[in-house]
């Protein structure tokens, strides 16, 4: 179950060569203390050697939500590959070891302790719906964490950083989209056995209700366990005109195919994930009409940030034939946030220096992939603005139907 991702080591260049290379690259040299210009080899932080920084990665490689995260490591490979090819961070390569948390808080906690105590990683990138299993421990140890904010813990602990913020408050943005598209009666589909997914489904239910969309039923669906025909019958019986999927996109397509085969075509189909061109290549017209909210700039809009991401994916994550997919870009951004923290921590990085430096950042946009956000303490607010993309009628691509739809935070 456990595996490593390591890169080969190389001999450390002399200090003057490192200084010259960093100066040429435009890095500001920051020592271990005021006026300290000592060699980086003197650093004693966990995970920091004279030519490498070791990170830990946690994500569900197995378990009910694992299919959603198949490309999680690819985005990390791409971002770290690009920075290492450019000389690393302050002259050090950034590498990682990964662990499978199975989407379970218990497994997440065990895996985090292994990475920190046995593998001595500097920090952790978490792409999981179960970060709550390790959040308290990592905060106590002062370990910096970046990743996918799917639980409230991401807005509670000072050591955790994400491009979006999860709080108790839901937003009405998704509900407004459904209403604007003509939906008024919804059924929510969610994966069983995942507390994180259940929380997301609950958030969607509140969003829909706030926009005046009635939630008729919440149905669990898991591949190999539940019958899409039975689920489709429940949707028809409820007389729903909207389906909201907090499940694997292929499962949503399976249910949608049954409905359409019976002559029932929902007005609105909204999926919490599934912005994935590989999915369209696999299922084609069966995915037509599925809409997905994204918090970053859609691939169809283009721009320097998207171009840099695509180039890095093609060069350093060639195992992913179709890089235009949701989880890969989220993991890429999560790795980029970690690199920003390392740069700010200086040539002799410490965990506390990383956290303090990144918490002072008031303007971060992942080189154009995001609208500008702040990491300053006390600025945590739920994401209220999303772009909405939709699979076209042929199932051959996505179109941007709402480039920037903004809603409001809902009170608890």
What gyration radius follows from the Cα positions, in whole Å?
A: 22 Å
Distance between the termini: 39 Å
Secondary structure: number of strands: 13
Low-pLDDT residue intervals, each spanning 5 or more residues: 1-41
DSSP helix fraction: 25-40%
Count of DSSP helices? 12
In the sheet with the most strands, the strands line up as 8-7-9-10-11-12-13
Structure classification: alpha/beta
* Main sheet overview: 7 strands, mixed
Strand content: 15-25%
Helix-strand topology string: EHEHEHEHEEHEHEHEHEHEHHHEE
Q: Oligomeric state of the chains? A: single chain
Gross morphology = globular
Average pLDDT for all residues: 87
Walk me through what this model shows.
This protein is 35% helix and 17% strand. By secondary structure, it is an alpha/beta fold. Helix 2 (72-85) crosses helix 10 (304-316), helix 5 packs across helix 6 (195-210) and helix 7 (228-238) packs across helix 8 (249-261). The longest helix is centred in the last third of the chain and has 20 residues, at 326-345.
Defining traits:
six-stranded mixed β-sheet; 12 helices; seven-stranded mixed β-sheet; alpha/beta; 35% helix
In short:
Helix content is 35%, strand content 17%.
Write the layout of secondary structure elements.
Layout: E1 3-5, H1 15-25, E2 52-59, H2 72-85, E3 93-100, H3 105-118, E4 123-126, H4 132-141, E5 145-147, E6 160-162, H5 173-180, E7 185-190, H6 195-210, E8 214-220, H7 228-238, E9 242-246, H8 249-261, E10 268-271, H9 277-283, E11 290-294, H10 304-316, H11 326-345, H12 351-359, E12 385-391, E13 398-406
Parallel strand pairs: 2-3, 2-4, 4-5, 5-6, 7-8, 7-9, 9-10, 10-11
Antiparallel strand pairs: 1-3, 11-12, 12-13
